[in-house]
């Protein structure tokens, strides 16, 4: 039974004893530790292990430990660029067994990555077999693939055996491994690096080797070179998969500070296959895969996130370079390729953001460097390598020179040497006796030559006699009899001379740091001559802070047409050339008796379009989002662009560049109602639209204009009546209101248009039979004394005092007389709500008025007929005549064809091309 004492073989702590516990038990006392301190210290140890030994590259050779160990293991196996390849399983096993404290299962993926030319700008592994593909397919098992070092890897390992770098014990203390590779070329910038450590990450993009070498030479030649000067020769990253970098600002920021982001896009081309437009993706963003991109595109098409794409087909084959792809994105017939492409950039992986984090280990400490500091770290590393290599070669050359000198000296008196060896009882004794032979200085000088003897004396001093050293005696004893031949003596003399040259060269190289830098420069020249791969990544001048399609599309004037059945399109204004007044016009839209063109106007690609509907609602759309079509294209149904309700259709639309509080939207209805609302009230678009104006059941919106304080507006009716009043006569109202009366209409009359009066311009009035005229906006004498104030009560339509019908419907003789009178050339201001003045005669020849425009001489006018014909003429070709006249022919109409709409092309965008206009002729009456 136990007596309370510990057993004899007990080797652990026991309960407390009186007195000293350690003395009583023979074991150390238990020490209490704060678990927080212990966890903190343990975590820091783990973090530093990850940072230094796993995740981050060294700034000198640009390699992580696993990558470096793979190359060293392959070098041990003599797997140079000219040797045969061996199984990757053997390489992984040797790396794991000799250098890397992890299984070959984690080493093989690293080896594979070093061989993929769509990942590495200059591959370090020369592969054979299935090493995966840019499609995203994985590599074959390591037992099926083979590899050897690439030419670039041999540059990394060159001079490794010449004591150029330090070595440390391996994880099992059995071997040694290099701390860093000699790295003849700047691998960190050329191949880049990706890694996530604890609390930090590195993301260094690849670059073109020739450009990096040029940057190294620049820093060598001018140590004070700025980042901007470096960018002149190293413009930016050069990804293995090509692509397009948008803008240079992100590159400059990354090179300056070590941190930035770049926008990288796929490189595409436009092709046409069987009348179908195709977007061909040839290069994809770095580190993405072809199959993932294709899958994402199909997903976006399925979810209707991107409209205008019919299908995506992968045509990549064996003829396609391994770092490229060939994805064909087929567009629908009415799709605008620019819009679709920009949507692809926004929603798909065809555009991505690449982080630039120039973080690397400098002296086993992680540091964020700028591009110049990275180049300087490489130059310092190469200086150290070249110096150590030269010192090693100098030492070896001196050792060999010493041996050759002994052989040359021995051959001067070879008979004595042979006799001494033959008389010696043993090899060891022979070596000792040879060291006792003294050679006169004259014989040594004759054996070594003048230059060799001078160097010999500089090393050993000037003496009358010289003895052989132990090493020289060993070489003589080991010398074969064949070495006594004259040819062998000449070879020794030649070798001695070469050794003298080499030693002089080594000493010269070590004499000045500038000589070492010149050697680095020569190495860069050799690399540029050997590796001539052209730049793959394009750098555009297009700066992008965010994906804004407005910034991606060049601003240009567009002709926007909207048919009665709601088909819309935009066409570049440049497709329409100015023609003579009265011409037949060119085909502008597909003729369709059942769907005539209802609206036509000129806008900019960057403007907003406000669509006003028969329900009194307004919708938004960017002009560049409209389908782009040629003159004869039908366009696209507007219901596919706007979220219109049942039986809701667009009545009018205007373009707005900026929503502000200084301008108003003044709306006019068919029944003569007007309403003014501040423009900023329409600045918040909603998918389902918002209320623009309240309408009576039988009324509809006709026109909308932008007005500012102090401006006048003119309303025109189908019977040729006009009224001019100040915008101030219509007080501002909210969006959800009805408005007030703008003009009193006769029976059967209706408002057809509204413009803002501008004294520097003229009013163009056009009738449906192709006749029209221009009349100045001249204000004339104000005559408002007899007119009563019109109350502006919402929804109330009071009858306003105005000119009597008799005064308006003047006799024909009075009409012709007024054409030349100054009063007939003016539109005098009236009170809102009157019947107005006669503007143009709506005779049987003219037909009713279809629209009005405010134009100046430099403007062009676009006119569209019911059959879809468009004609563009100069506004100056239309005579300026008075009110109450019939006008001149502005477009020759086919039988049963009628004008339906007109649009102004401002002078600043009007095309001056075209033929000279014909004289006005008798039609001016």
Automatic annotation (TrEMBL):
Residues 1-25, 796-841 are annotated as: Disordered. GO terms for cellular component: cytoplasm; DNA topoisomerase type II (double strand cut, ATP-hydrolyzing) complex. Transmembrane segments: none annotated. It comes from the Bacteria. Residues 796-810 have a biased composition (Low complexity). The active site is at 144 (o-(5'-phospho-dna)-tyrosine intermediate). It catalyses: ATP-dependent breakage, passage and rejoining of double-stranded DNA. The keyword Disulfide bond does not apply. One of its GO terms (biological process) is DNA topological change. Residues 56-552 form the Topo IIA-type catalytic domain. GO terms for molecular function: ATP binding; DNA binding; DNA topoisomerase type II (double strand cut, ATP-hydrolyzing) activity. Belongs to the type II topoisomerase GyrA/ParC subunit family. This is DNA topoisomerase (ATP-hydrolyzing). The lineage of its organism: Bacteria, Pseudomonadati, Planctomycetota, Planctomycetia, Planctomycetales.
């Amino acid at each position: 039974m136990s007596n309370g004492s510990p057993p004899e073989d007990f080797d652990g702590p026991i309960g407390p004893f009186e007195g000293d516990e350690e003395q009583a038990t023979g074991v150390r006392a238990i020490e209490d530790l704060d678990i927080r301190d212990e966890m903190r210290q343990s975590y820091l140890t783990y973090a530093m292990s990850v940072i230094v030994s796993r995740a981050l590259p060294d700034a000198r050779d640009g390699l992580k430990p696993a990558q470096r160990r793979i190359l060293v293991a392959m070098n041990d196996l003599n797997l140079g660029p000219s040797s045969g390849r061996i199984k990757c399983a053997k390489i992984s096993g040797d790396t794991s067994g000799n250098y890397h404290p992890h299984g070959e299962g984690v080493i093989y993926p690293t080896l594979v990555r070093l061989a993929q030319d769509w990942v590495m700008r200059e591959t370090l592994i020369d592969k054979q077999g299935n090493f995966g593909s840019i499609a995203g397919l994985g590599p074959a098992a390591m037992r099926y693939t083979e590899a050897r070092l690439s030419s670039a890897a041999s540059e990394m390992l060159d001079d490794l055996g010449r004591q150029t770098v330090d070595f440390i014990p391996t994880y099992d203390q059995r071997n040694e491994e290099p701390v860093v590779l000699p790295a003849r070329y700047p691998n960190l910038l050329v191949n880049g690096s990706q890694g996530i450590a604890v609390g930090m990450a590195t993301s260094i993009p690849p670059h073109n080797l020739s450009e990096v070498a040029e940057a190294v030479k620049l820093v060598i030649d001018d140590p004070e070179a700025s980042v901007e000067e470096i960018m002149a020769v190293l413009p930016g990253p050069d990804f293995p998969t090509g692509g397009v970098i948008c803008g240079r600002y992100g590159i400059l920021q990354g090179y300056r500070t070590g941190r930035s982001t770049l926008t990288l896009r796929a490189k595409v081309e436009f092709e046409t296959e069987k009348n179908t437009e195709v977007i061909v993706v040839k290069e994809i963003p770095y580190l993405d895969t072809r199959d993932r991109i294709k899958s994402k595109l199909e997903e976006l098409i399925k979810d209707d996130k991107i409209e205008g794409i019919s299908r995506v087909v992968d045509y990549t084959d064996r003829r396609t370079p391994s770092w490229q792809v060939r994805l064909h994105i087929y567009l629908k017939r009415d799709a605008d390729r620019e819009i679709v492409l920009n949507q692809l950039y926004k929603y798909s992986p065809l555009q991505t953001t690449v982080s630039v984090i120039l973080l690397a280990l400098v002296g086993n400490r992680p540091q964020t460097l700028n591009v110049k500091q990275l180049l300087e770290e490489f130059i310092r590393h190469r200086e150290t390598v070249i110096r150590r290599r030269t010192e090693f070669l100098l030492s070896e050359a001196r050792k060999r020179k010493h041996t050759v000198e002994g052989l040359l000296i021995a051959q001067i008196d070879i008979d004595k040497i042979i006799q001494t060896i033959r008389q010696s009882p043993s090899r060891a004794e022979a070596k000792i006796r040879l060291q006792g032979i003294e050679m006169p200085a004259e014989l040594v000088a004759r054996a070594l030559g003048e230059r060799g003897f001078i160097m010999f004396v500089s090393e050993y001093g000037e003496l009358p006699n010289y003895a052989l050293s132990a090493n020289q005696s060993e070489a003589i004893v080991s010398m074969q009899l064949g070495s006594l031949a004259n040819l062998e003596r000449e070879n020794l003399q030649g070798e001695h001379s070469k050794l003298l040259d080499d030693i002089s060269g080594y000493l010269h190289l070590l004499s000045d740091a500038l000589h070492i830098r010149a050697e680095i420069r020569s190495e860069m020249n050799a690399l540029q001559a050997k590796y001539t791969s052209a730049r793959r990544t394009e750098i555009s001048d297009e700066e992008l802070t965010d994906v804004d399609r407005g910034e991606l599309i060049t601003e240009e004037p567009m002709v926007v047409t909207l048919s009665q059945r709601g088909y819309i399109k935009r066409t570049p204004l440049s497709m329409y050339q100015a023609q003579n007044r009265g011409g037949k016009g060119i085909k502008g839209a597909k003729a369709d008796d059942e769907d005539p063109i209802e609206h036509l106007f000129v806008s900019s690609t960057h403007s907003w379009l406000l669509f006003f509907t028969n329900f009194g609602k307004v919708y938004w759309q960017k002009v560049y989002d409209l389908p782009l079509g040629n003159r004869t294209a039908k366009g696209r149904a507007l219901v596919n662009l706007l979220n219109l309700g049942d039986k809701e259709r667009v009545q009018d639309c205007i373009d707005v560049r900026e929503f502000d509080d200084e301008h108003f939207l003044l709306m006019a209805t068919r029944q003569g109602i007007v309403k003014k609302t501040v423009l900023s009230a329409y600045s918040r678009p909603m998918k389902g639209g918002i209320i623009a104006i309240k309408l009576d059941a039988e009324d509809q919106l006709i026109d909308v204009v932008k007005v500012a304080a102090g401006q006048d507006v003119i309303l025109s009716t189908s019977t040729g009546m006009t009224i001019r009043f100040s915008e101030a006569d219509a007080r501002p109202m909210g969006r959800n209101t009805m408005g007030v009366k703008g003009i009193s209409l006769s029976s059967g009359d209706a408002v057809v248009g509204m413009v803002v009066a501008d004294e520097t311009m003229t009013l163009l009035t056009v009738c449906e039979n192709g006749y029209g005229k221009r009349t100045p906006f001249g204000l004339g004498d104000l005559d408002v004394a007899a007119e009563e104030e019109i109350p502006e009560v919402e929804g109330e339509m009071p009858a306003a005092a105005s000119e009597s019908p008799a005064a308006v419907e003047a006799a024909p003789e009075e009409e012709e007389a007024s054409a030349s009178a100054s009063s007939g050339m003016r539109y005098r201001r009236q009170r809102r709500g009157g019947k107005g003045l006669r503007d143009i005669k709506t005779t049987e020849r003219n037909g009713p008025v279809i629209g009005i425009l405010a134009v100046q001489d430099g403007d062009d006018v676009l006119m569209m007929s019911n059959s879809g014909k468009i004609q563009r003429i100069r506004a100056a070709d239309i005579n300026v005549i008075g009110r109450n006249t019939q006008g001149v022919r502005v477009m020759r109409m086919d039988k049963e064809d009628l004008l339906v709409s007109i649009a102004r092309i401002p002078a600043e965008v009007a095309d001056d091309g075209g033929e000279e206009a014909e004289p006005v002729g008798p039609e001016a009456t």
